[in-house]
Amino acid sequence: MVKLMARERLYLFDTTLRDGAQTNGVDFTLADKLAIASMLDDLGIDYVEGGYPGANPTDTELFGKDRGFGTTFTAFGMTRRPGRSASNDPGLAALLEAKSDAICFVAKSWDYHVKVALETTEEENLASIRESVRAAKAKGREVLLDCEHFFDGYKANPKFALACAKAAYDEGARWVVLCDTNGGTLPDEVESIVREVVKVIPGDHVGIHAHNDTEQAVANSLAAVRAGARQIQGTLNGLGERCGNANLVSIIPTLRLKPEFAERFDIGVSESALKKLAHVSRTLDERLNRAPNRHAPYVGESAFATKAGIHASAIMKDPATYEHVAPEMIGNRRKVLVSEQAGKSNVLAELERVGIKVDKDDPRIGRLLEVVKEREAIGYAYEAADASFELLARRTLGKVPNYFDVTQFDVNVEQRNNAKGQRVTVTMAVVKVKVGDDNMISAAEGNGPVNALDLALRKDLGKYQKYIAGLKLTDYRVRILNSGTEAVTRVLIESEDEQGERWTTVGVSPNIIDASFQALMDSIIFKLVKSGAPA
Ligand SMILES: [Zn+2]
């Protein structure tokens, strides 16, 4: 007889907007916070921690009115200060006033910190926890307690650390969250300490909050679940101060797709919501104006990229041979890299991916492979420049219209004294373009020759101008390659359009301006092809 076990519910708590906001260089506006919270809500995250009302104007405004999220929208703050009553603490009052569904308090649970940082007694710390939880419960809020430095505290004084956790649980806190605040605890320690905690507090009231200082925040979170914890706190893309928090973008697919967890637990993220995960991860990077991490597990552009020809042909026959999960499950896609070792199967797979239909016995495939090999030998890097590969493939197969010709360009860099007698460097580019029967001349000044050339080239493309209006360059990388006796320059340009789609193009030449020009041209032509601009 097969025994069916009911699956347990595992809860996800996102703190991107609070702990993640501690990241160097991250500064969320109110609009950012609302957009990210609604994206997390949509994904099916159980708790979204919005911030720390009373601590800064943005968070105070965020919690100033009911935001109507489906998720349990949570405000963060401190338990009442030592030596004050709960009714006479302005920080606590601001937290209780906040329009939130839940309140997550943070409290000390390491005796050393109580003595040195708070300068108070253990008993007063426990009283502060009890009274703060009681005050929030009286306001009808769901209550969580983050036990700061719990694992270090437990190692130093397990009795006191547990007493802090138990004080909150006994007062009716829904969750007691064990925080590895320094991020230095290892998975086996987390597992054995959580096993001890769940003997005192039921595991379905215990959460884990791990930091990534030994790059094991995800492993620590999963270890806590193995030991009985039933809430995981983390952030999108592992955002967070120092080395970051536990990365929910890695944790979520592991919980849904790996049998050890998928067979035992239900989470709020549905199978269809999981398909949005790659998009969610990249959208956050967009908002932060950062290039997404290509090598991010599950969602990175290279997470399902394969290089060698022999692997590529096996992948085409059965993807499961080289992939631990199917990329489509998390909204990612398979990518077969075109490289020096490329076999015909690589090229065919890549053509299929970019949507070019061609018969596998077409002789032009062999020619394309030859061209790729020749060009890679002189420095082109097609596996880093997917858009240039696609153009090369389309050209070899005779499918790229000749939209326009650059008949001449001229870049001039001049250093001289200006009217005030200061030494200045001025760069100017002039580009002559022929679009159909129209000849156009554009000139632009830029801060550097490549910038001036880019601006002049994109200034006036006649009837094609509307297709490239939203195009912008997001990254520009230069590398000097030594091939034989001559050095050549390789330029990689990353572009982005108005829909947030990104692509990379490449140019190679002994001359850096010429290499940049090739990459710029590829980027513009790729955009015209992509937009279906008429020939
Ligand atoms: Zn933290």
Please write out the topology:
Elements: E1 8-9, E2 11-14, H1 30-43, E3 47-51, H2 57-62, E4 72-78, H3 90-97, E5 102-108, H4 111-116, H5 122-138, E6 142-148, H6 150-156, H7 158-170, E7 175-180, H8 187-197, E8 206-210, H9 217-227, E9 231-234, H10 248-257, H11 259-262, E10 265-266, H12 271-274, H13 277-288, E11 305-306, H14 309-317, E12 335-336, H15 344-353, H16 363-377, H17 386-396, E13 405-417, E14 423-435, E15 438-446, H18 449-457, H19 465-468, E16 472-483, E17 486-496, E18 502-509, H20 512-530
Parallel strand pairs: 1-10, 2-3, 2-9, 3-4, 4-5, 5-6, 6-7, 7-8, 8-9, 11-12
Antiparallel strand pairs: 13-14, 14-15, 16-17, 17-18
Helix pairs in contact: 1-13, 5-7, 6-7, 8-9, 14-15, 16-17, 17-20, 18-20
The structure holds zinc ion.
Zinc ion binds near residues 181, 209, 211 and 245.
Q: Short description, anyone?
A:
This protein is of the alpha/beta class and 535 residues long. Helices cover 37% and strands 22% of the residues. It has helices at 30-43, 57-62, 90-97, 111-116, 122-138, 150-156, 158-170, 187-197, 217-227, 248-257, 259-262, 271-274, 277-288, 309-317, 344-353, 363-377, 386-396, 449-457, 465-468, 512-530; strands spanning 8-9, 11-14, 47-51, 72-78, 102-108, 142-148, 175-180, 206-210, 231-234, 265-266, 305-306, 335-336, 405-417, 423-435, 438-446, 472-483, 486-496, 502-509.
